[in-house]
Amino acid sequence: MTIYGITGNEIQAIKYKHVENITLKQLCAVFLSEYYERQKITSFVALKSMIKNHILNLINPDIIITAIDYETIHEFRKSLEKVNFKNKNKIIAYLKMIFVFADNYYDYKCLPVYRLNKFRCKIGSDQQQGYYIYTYKDFKKYIEGVKDPFDLSLFYCLYYFGLRIGEIRGLQWQDIDNGCLYIRRAATASADAKRTIMIDVKSESSFRYFKIPSFILKEFNLLHEESKSKIYVFGNERKEATYPMSESSIRRHIADQAKRKHMKYLHPHAWRHSCASFLVNKLNCDIYQVKEWMGHADIVITSKIYVQLFPERKDQITKQIDKINLKQF
Length: 329
What we know:
The chain is mainly alpha-helical. The chain has 15 helices and five strands.
């Protein structure tokens, strides 16, 4: 496996070099090769991309790791402030993780990295506002006038089921059975990012099923009749009928419809937040129902992610408190 242009044999050789000769890029490649053995392919690909775009792009990848000093880290942090990335503390955490690995593997401590401070959230900042989402009213406006069963089925899967983009790409016609939609697999990039592979959904709780509402089932049936792809629900017909639609093509469908309606583009993962908000604010679901619907492994995950997305319910509580209090006087 080649990582950042370094072959597998070269990575194995680097593991036994003297630490002073190892560059940051080589260290990251060795770290990722070890990480690959322990994690799912989706996590590996995401981390590989993050390191390349936000660490090796901001610190000279050819710098010898023993030459990394406080000035280097200071410049890195200043550059990171300008990066358009929501969770910059995650980048800092991974950089520290890489050097913890260097400490354990090469017995090398990099104090400048260990003392790198996280970014603090400012009160009222965008970082505390969470994702921009579509309310139910927004979604009805978004799909108004859409007739294509492909687009309608895609938007319904995003908004009503809160499917991850990999789960949408991995949907096969055999997963729609007897009025139910089964979520069994996800499409992701291979380790070399050159092809698409199918993996099991990320956890046991992510393996779930939905009773399909009649209006959504109708669109699925229409799509099945019209589609050339007899394997994937959202097949890439331009390439071959046995290949799932690319992630970029799905994003383009979402963006094109938003543009037609003069609405803000919604990131694919923000559709999951919109779905959760819909469940709570429109359907009055409790947090346990949201957990099961979204496929979370733990109720704590649900509460941490979605507690900020329910302003309407908070307003209802405030109004109820006012109503009760007024009756007492």
